[in-house]
Automatic annotation (TrEMBL):
Source domain of life: Eukaryota
Entry similarity comment: Belongs to the glycosyl hydrolase 28 family.
Signal peptide positions (record): 1-16
PANTHER family assigned to the protein according to its UniProt record, in alphabetical order: PECTIN LYASE-LIKE SUPERFAMILY PROTEIN, PECTIN LYASE-RELATED
Organism, as annotated: Dioscorea zingiberensis
GO BP: carbohydrate metabolic process
Keywords from the named record: Glycosidase, Hydrolase, Signal
Protein name (database record): Rhamnogalacturonase A/B/Epimerase-like pectate lyase domain-containing protein
Keyword Hydrolase listed: yes
Annotated Rhamnogalacturonase A/B/Epimerase-like pectate lyase domain residues: 26-78
Amino acid sequence: MASLIILLLVISTAFAAIKSDGSHLSVTDFGATGDGRHYDTTAIQQAIDACAAGGGGRVRFPSGGKYLTATIFLRSDVVLEIESGAQILGGTRQEDYPKESARWYVVLAEKVKGAGITGGGEINGQGWAFVVRPNPKKNIMVSWNATGDCLGDECRPRLVGFIDSTDVRVWNVTLNQPAYWCLHLVRSSNSVVEDVKIYGDFNTPNNDGIDIEDSNNTLITRCHIDTGDDAICPKSSTGPVYNLTATDCWIRTKSSAIKFGSASFFDFRRHFYNNITIFESHRGLGMQIRDGGNVSDITFSNMKISTRYYDPSWWGRAEPIYITSCARDSSSKAGFISNIKFVNISSVSENGVFLAGSKDGFLRNLKFKNINLAYKRWTNYTAGLYDYRPGCQGLVKHNTAGMMMEHISGLEIQNVSMRWSRNGFKGWNDPLQFKASTVDKISFHDWSSDVL
């Protein structure tokens, strides 16, 4: 009930903030050509600024146009209305983006209130232009690290960002082919993301679907996310992540469908994930707590999950549920994970449930209720490996179990069944595996394990 109240408060607050009146301006009236070849940046920005100066309203991108642009800056009380059949195309040149890599977005809102994006059309980051060498395992990508402002192959522009903003809403729009992260909420509050379709190239690393970083009171609902990297990803880099609700979504990813971290310097509290389908993903529900932040009061409910191996170069070994806490390195510390509920979940997976705390970061009070776990192998990747990455122990050879547990205090298993495929039984060793010296306060009620 508390989660439902939070959800309704977020909806009512954000909806009230989005202006339904005010001016309605078209970017074509400011000189945008929409031919997909000439940059319309100036015309688009002029329309946004004029709309904001008039008290807010909507800036329209007429259907049929392809509006090529460098970074555009969204203002308070302005909604981009990208009509069905219209596209905003992100530029692919380094000079199309601000000097600071933290501001590399196609659409960027900074310190705004009541802004939004809608209309049924599409924002396209032209991510394929950043592929140096296509690779069915993992594409080799462009890196702009020559700027010195960022390092590694993650120096690429994101698609849409809301930074230090409040009462924002993104709805009824397609976000397509990001070069890096797709939708990024940073230190923002009262955000609503609904009826959004996200498509990223399946072989491109780091093209996350929705990253909720240091942001609170967030609602994500009725979204379709099909991308190469983490789909819904809370991160705590400079502050906590509280009151996140995600419901009624469909997800496919080559990484984790829902993943906490791995940036986890501050706490995650009061998250509610319900009625989500996870289809053929490399990992289902994941927590990678590596930097000292704590996780508490999280519920995952009413989910259908299928996982499979794609390639060892991606983190994960096809676990339907993966909960870990350990220090990233000698300069980090582990955080505690407590009061986590898994209710009414069914899965078909190529690996077991992985629950691994550490001596300095115990898992406490985990509850599994009404869970059906089916185990089946249909790829040829090597079994018998547990994946602790990033940091920690890396890849570790291990017997493969239906549920592996270590460093846990308090685990309740109620009405949980495990089913093993006869065709994929080889390589499996035990339904349950744990080190008695690291696990206590375990309760089993109506637990079963047999062969399909």
